[in-house]
Structures are given as C-alpha cells and as structure tokens.
Design a protein that fits this description.
Length: 427
C-alpha cells in the first residue's frame, strides 16, 4: 500500500505530500544527524529523500491528463537559481538588522537567532545549495570585520549553524571560515576566564569603543592590559571592535609595552640634544659653573643644618647614625602607630587571583616570579608599584602591575610601603 512506503515513513510524510514538503522534511531530518558519527544514517536519509522525489514525480505523471490536440502543453518551469535564492534570503536578513539594533543590547543575540532560523525555515532555502550559499555569505560578512551588531550576530550564528560543534562545516568556506574558526577558539578562551577578568576586559573594550584615538589621558595600565588582550584575542577582537580603533589602540599599546618608565621619565627631563655638542660641555665654561654651584650648595646646606640643629648633641648623632642604616626587608612596612599594619597574606592572595595572565606558546614550563615594591596611600589605593625583580615573561610582569594598580583589596589601615612576590606556574 502507498501509505506503507518506508521512504515516506522515514521522512514523516503522508502519501499526498508535495515536493516542497519533501524537501522541507529532508532539511528537518538532516539537522538531527551527525554525518561524521552516523554515515549510514545519513545515507539512508538521502536515499529516502531521493526515492520520495522520484515517487512524487511518477505520481504526477500518472495522474496527469493528456493535453488536447489543439492545446499546447504547459511549459515546465525552470529550476530556481540557488544563488538568487540565497541572495534574497541574505538581503532580507540584513534589512532587519536596524530593527534589531534599536532594541536593548542584551536581547540582540536572541533576536539574531530568531531571524536566522526564520531564514532557514523559509521556502527559498529548502534548496540545499542555496542554504550553503546563504551560510557562506554570512561567514564572509563576519570575517570582513566589525560592523554594528556583528559581535552578537557572530554568537547567534555559531549556535544556529553549530560551528563550534562541527568545525568542518565552517572550514569549508576557505580563508574566511578559518578566520572565524580561530575567532571561536579565542572567544571561548575569553569566556572561560574568571568573572572579574571578563568584567575588566569588558570595561576596557567599552573605553576602546568610545576612544578611537587613544590619548595621553589613557593610563599605562590600560595600555598594558589591552596589549595582553590583543596578543591573545586579536581574531575575536576584529569582530567586536571597529578596525581603525583596534589598530590605533594596538599600536599605542605595543609602544607603551616597549617603553621603560624610568628611562622615559629621564627623557622627558632632558632638554639637550644628544646629537649636538653643547657649549656647556666645554671645560672652560663647565668648570667655573660647577664650582659656583658647589659653593651655593654648601652654603644652603649649612643654613639648613644650623636651623635644624637641636640642643641635644647625642640626639643629633643618633639620628645621623640611624639614617645611614638601610631598612631590612622586614622593616619595609611603614604605617601609623594607630594603624592595624601592613597587608595580610589573604589580601596579597586576593591580588594574586586578580592577575589576568595567559602564557604564550613560547613561554617554557616552570615558575614565573616577579617582585614589586608597593606603596599604599591613606585611602587604601596603590600609588606606586615598582618592579624589583622581573620574571621570564614581560607580559606576566605587566599583568601583575595592572592587577596592583586596579585592585581594591587594600584598606586605609594598610597605608605604607612593602615588598611582595607574585608567582605563576606555566604547565
């Protein structure tokens, strides 16, 4: 009997199904099969689909009435062009982007997923070739760089087309597919970070989006954080940040990472051109000026010493002796007598957890250790973090410095100076 045909049962169709219904059922069942792990199931579904189309065509011929002699047969419609079908569906998707961007940003991913699924369920994409061409246009659009709404469209498309689960599907689109494949890896690595790290990076990305040209008002710690972020997530950032802003920040952050703060301060104070021979370097001019300066300096020091000389000579000698003895490491903490004291180990551990560092492929396994001299003001804020001992990776040192500058774990009672080690074990 006709209602017992296995190919109709496999597609979940009734005997009176039209060709459009057959193609739609095939597309629906195809989503349920993993071609890599179940090749026989895919082959059975494909055979059922082809048999159903042949059965429908045969039934149409069987029931068609013969045309009259004086009538010409109706022309057979030409098959629709899959490129045109894909272009029409893609055009419809882009036409609705403005409506999506007008809504709250938190709803963009969900709205993009609804729009994409509506395109795939449309009759124009029942053609399998048109469906693939539509997906290819979407991949090339995302890989071309950031546009408003692309960051949420990227997340929605990854879920709807299941790119993360089946990488072969996206890699079939050549260079554009490979670029998105790498962006997916970086995005998932970003999402696996701690909530505090993600929040810090999100805040920095907001700053980048509103400051296309970084200025001198941007802090060094922000540049160093962006340098680390761009070196780890560049492919993903190219989908979420405007290209011009991304390149401007990338160049500025790299330049800042190469700068030595101590050397830069010295350069800022220099006013003599080192390439020219200054007149002040000539002995006939420099020697008299040097003697004059030394005489003035001794006179000034004598006035200061006379003004501050206490009556108790022993106190003077004791103060001078103590000033010549360098403080030991355990004496580095400086705090008021009514304060609780320097930071606790729990506070330093909290700072250690805020060091957002991902070792690169070129960093050898082992322990990275950096030592810093830290000063905390009366509000509990770190006002100085001077590197005493560097680790093997400058990016780790920059991450420690950024964590110290941005941390909020210290309290007013921690005011003073101290030294601390920060470690990271590369596996």
């Amino acid at each position: 009997m006709r209602d017992t045909f296995p190919f109709l049962t496999r597609l979940g169709l009734q005997p009176g199904a039209e060709a459009k219904e057959i193609r739609r059922a095939y597309a629906r069942e195809l989503k349920k099969i993993d071609q890599e792990t179940d090749p026989s199931g895919f082959q059975q579904l494909r055979e059922a689909y082809e048999n159903a189309l042949r059965w429908h065509e045969a039934s149409q011929i069987e029931h068609a009435s013969a045309p009259a002699r004086d009538e010409e047969p109706e022309p057979v419609p030409e098959p629709e062009d899959p490129y045109e079908l894909a272009a029409l569906s893609f055009q419809w998707l882009q036409s609705g982007s403005d409506l999506i961007l007008e809504r709250a940003e938190s709803s963009h991913v969900g709205l993009w997923k609804i729009a994409l699924r509506k395109c795939l369920d449309d009759d124009r994409l029942l053609n399998l070739q048109a469906r693939i061409l539509f997906e290819e246009q979407l991949v090339r659009l995302l890989a071309s760089g950031w546009q408003p709404g692309h960051e949420s469209l990227f997340q929605a498309a990854n879920e709807v087309f299941e790119w993360e689960r089946d990488r072969r599907r996206i890699l079939q689109f050549g260079e554009a597919g490979a670029r998105l494949d790498k962006a997916i890896d970086e995005w998932k690595l970003f999402e696996s970070m701690t909530p505090d790290a993600i929040a810090s990076f999100r805040q920095l990305l907001n700053l980048v989006s509103i400051t296309r040209e970084p200025t001198s008002m941007i802090g060094r710690s922000d540049f160093l954080l962006f340098h680390q972020m761009a070196s780890r997530f560049y492919s993903w950032l190219s989908l979420t940040v405007e290209r011009e802003a991304l390149e401007n920040w990338r160049e500025a952050a790299f330049a800042e990472s190469q700068r030595d703060p101590a050397k830069q301060n010295a350069d800022d104070k220099a006013w003599i051109d080192p390439s020219s021979e200054s007149i002040w370097r000539r002995p006939i001019i420099a020697l008299p000026i040097a003697f004059m300066f030394i005489g003035l300096l001794f006179g000034f020091l004598s006035m200061v010493i006379d003004a501050r000389t206490p009556k108790n000579k022993e106190a003077v000698e004791r103060n001078v002796t103590e000033s010549l003895v360098p403080p030991r490491d355990e004496e580095v903490f400086q705090f008021e007598p009514d304060k609780d004291g320097p930071p606790t180990q729990a506070q330093l551990d909290a700072v250690q957890r805020q060091v957002y560092y991902i070792p690169g492929s070129g960093v050898a396994p082992g322990v990275l250790r950096a030592r810093y001299h830290i000063q905390i003001d009366a509000s509990g804020k770190v006002v100085m973090a001077w590197k005493l001992n560097a680790s093997r990776d400058p990016l780790f040192d920059d991450a420690v410095e950024s964590a110290l500058v941005h941390t909020k774990v210290f309290k007013p009672e921690n005011q003073g100076k101290f030294r601390a080690w920060f470690d990271y074990t590369v596996r």
